[in-house]
Structures are given as structure tokens and as C-alpha cells.
Input
Amino acid sequence: MESKIELTCESVKGRNDAEVIRFAGDLDATNVQTVLEKVTTFFNEGKVQIVADFAKLRYVNSTGLGILLHLNKSAKEKSGRFKIANVNENVFEIVEIIGATSILEIYDTVDEALASLN
Amino acid sequence: MKSEIPYRVSVSFPGELDYIPLVRQLVSDALQVLKFSPKFSFRSEFLVDELCNNAVIHGSPSDRQPVEVLCDAYADRVEIFVKGAGGYHENIQRFREAIAEASREKGHDIELIRLLSDTVTCTIDDNNVSHIHVVRMREC
Amino acid sequence: MSDNAPAAMIEDIPQAPEICLIRLRGDLDIRSAAIFDTCLSDASMDGKKFAIVDLTAVTMIASVALGKLLGLKRRFTEKGGDLVLSGINLDIKMKCILMGVDKIFKMFNDVHSAMNVYSWEVMHEAESIKLSFPPQIGVVPAVRRFVSGVMAQKGYKGRDSFRIETIVDELCNNAVEYGSKNENDNISLSMRIDWEKIELDAENISDPAKREQLQAFMSNVSCEMPHDGDFTRGRGLALVKLLSSDFSADVTEKGTIVHVTKIKEE
Output
């Protein structure tokens, strides 16, 4: 049984190459494939500027972080970006311990992340 | 006919009511992973809940034995074993009689357990520890 | 004698000689005061420091009886102990709340809960929990949520709870990945929790095809995080080691045991 994760998507006004994806739940080994497929679909549609809103993402494990690193890398390969916003304290600590803060682009708010797309 | 080896989920925990919601949720989630329907899993969860509550409430407070729950998932059924946390002999005996008589025993909710199960058996060992075994067939 | 005649029964608890268990029954009204006085003062004279007053069989409790209980509680607290209530039905509970008694007495659903809290909070006794589950990745979130729930109950909050949840998740994921693929070769997780720390043992039967790889991996588990290569691999055990206070792993022909200690920080 997959951990519950919900992704809701929102277009970015004035840009047809960007999308805000709001994550809710837990990101772990049981649902990374689902997340990978959904975000890859956006990449394939030309939406390569992604802002992931983690305000409601409670938990992420090393497998989940691996996916985020992969998406970050994939976006760059397509001349896009995969940015992350609203990371909670606990998740941020794990990202920091893993050493991914120097690789992932993390912002305090979605607005800041969107502004950085330009 | 018992042929295959079951998937097994087991939990041993202190005889305390607060653990029971966590234990029953674990069993329910595991059954759904093992391809039982949400409805079946919910009913099994209910059985685990009732049996564990009985084991905790009617066990002796001076006996610090853990409660053990074992859930064997076969292709056609689930078998749930609950080993109680020690108990007063009178309480266990009443429980066993209630199962045998198919009557509703106050505080034991036996009837509910019987309604949700295909078979229920209870044994008491020499240390006054109750062993309840419930079988629930998979719905077709 | 009416079925609701007040009565009291006092029990010792052999494993907890400091506690007396007082089971009250019937209507505790003004007529029960004398019974109360005799039984309860006997209990308090026994050198007991704590009392659990079980009201499961009590049908009614008048304010005079509550007053008696308050007086007795004072005598236990003066000795550095306490008197708590258990098994209160809804009517009595409502009365207690209206009178503000719930702010004075700790109340428990039953004697077991009271005993377990005493063991945990007063005696600081450790609790042990053991799980065994099939080596399927889909079960791991359920195990993780279970552990998270236990942590919350035992007063491990916030960061500590999250870290322990992460440790359990990573250990179980590794056990599934590197363990036997025989669906009946269960993974077992043992936990021993006390006020200061949690000790975890994750044990599983190894996949013979991956044993050497696992042995090499375990002996090289460092705090350095791999950033390149396959995005799904290499971080879990390193993360466990970084989050743990103590970490050890033993890979043999029979299987793998990983032992982790996590000291409470918050």
C-alpha cells in the first residue's frame, strides 16, 4: 500500500512553461514512482520550470530525496529548473544532513521561488 | 484445507490500551498490502481491536506480560491469534463460557467478535494466559 | 443488601509494592463514608506511596465521597506519592468535570493504563515492543506510522520523533532491498524505549545474492553522502548512522542485524 501523497497542480500566470505542484502527505519508497511519473509528464509537455510547494509535505526519506535530486537534474538537462518551497523544519534537516541543500534550490515561499524563475 | 504458508504480521506490546489503535491500524494496513479488500481489512481491524481490548482490560494489572497479536494471512482467510496479558482466572473462564454459549457477555462484546468471525476458540494455559484464535474467511 | 451497597476492596500489587489498588463499588453517598474511612485509612497506613482508586463498579458518587478522596490524596502526596482514579463512567466523569475534580485527580480509563503510566513516569521502566512483518515495501509505511505513534505516546516529540521515524523507515527499506525475497522470511523490528533513549534492532534474513555487496557496504558505511550516480541508492544507511547516537551492523550467513541507539535530545 502506497503512503498517501497528493499532488495538486497550478499553472503560473503568464508562463506556459511553468507549473506549481503542491505536495501533501509522505514521500517515500512506496510512492516515488507515482511522483516521478507525474512530474515527468509535465517535463514532456514542455513545462520544465517547476516549483514544488512542500507546505503540506510531512515526511520524506532518502528514496524520496533521491527522486527530488533526480528531478532537479532532469529539469536542468531540459534547460529548466525544479525548485522547492515551504520545506518544514524536519524535512529540511534531513535534506541538510544528506548534503542536498547545496544541490537543490530551496526557497522560503512559493512566490520567491517563482520570482527566481526569471 | 490449510496448505500454503501464510504471510505473517505479529506485534508484541505492553498491555496498555493506548497501544491498541496503533496495532489495529498496522494490521489493517498490512492486510491491504497483502491484497485484502479495505472492507475486509476494516473488519479484521475491528476484531483485533476487540480482542486486544479484552486482553488488556481483563488481564491482571499485577502481571506485566505483554499482549501478543499474530495475524496469518492465507489466500482464502485470515487467522488472528491474541495472547492475553495474564488474567484473572474468573474473567478468562467467563470469556470462554461466553464464546461457547454464543451469548453477549457484558464487557466482552463476544457477540460482535462472533458475528465478524467464522470460528472463535479460547484456551487458557497453566499461567492463566488466555489464547484467542479467530478465523475469518475472505469474502468471495 | 442492595446491589448498589457501597463496598471497598484493597489489593496489593506484588510487582509494585509501593502501590495499593482500591476497588470501590456501588453508590458512594453519605452512607458509604464510614466504609470509606476504615478501608482507605487502612490502605494509607500500609506504607504505600501511591494509590489507584478504581471506580469501574461505582454507580454513583456524591460530593462527600469525592471530598474523602481528596483528603486521602493529600495524605499520599504528602508522602511524595499520588492517588489517581481509574475506570470512571461517563456520568461520574461529567460530575467530576463540573466540580473541577478532573483538574485535581489524574484519571485513567482503567487500572492497566494507570499502572503503565506509573511504571513509565515514576519508575522509568523501559517498554519493549516487537514487530514482525513480510519483506514487502508496501508494509514499511505502516510500520513507520506505528513507530511514530508509539514515539508520540512515549513523549518523544518533534525532531526526536521524526528522526526515529526516519531511522526505522531507512532500516526497513534496506531490509526489504537487501533481504531475502522469500515472502515468508519476515523482517523483525525490536524496540526498547525508556525515558532517555530508544534502542532498535532490525533483523532480517539476507538475500544470498546480495550478501557480499551488503557486507562490503556495511563495513564502509560512512557519514559521507553519495551525490552522484543512481539516485535511489546509497543514502539510507549513511543517514541512519548520522541520525543515531550509536550504530552497529552484523552481516552473517544467517542474516543481518542492525542495532541503533537514539538518545532523546529534546
About this structure: The longest strand of chain B covers residues 130-137. Chain B touches chain C through 33 residues (CB under 8 Å). Strands of chain B lie at 7-13, 67-73, 77-83, 119-124, 130-137.
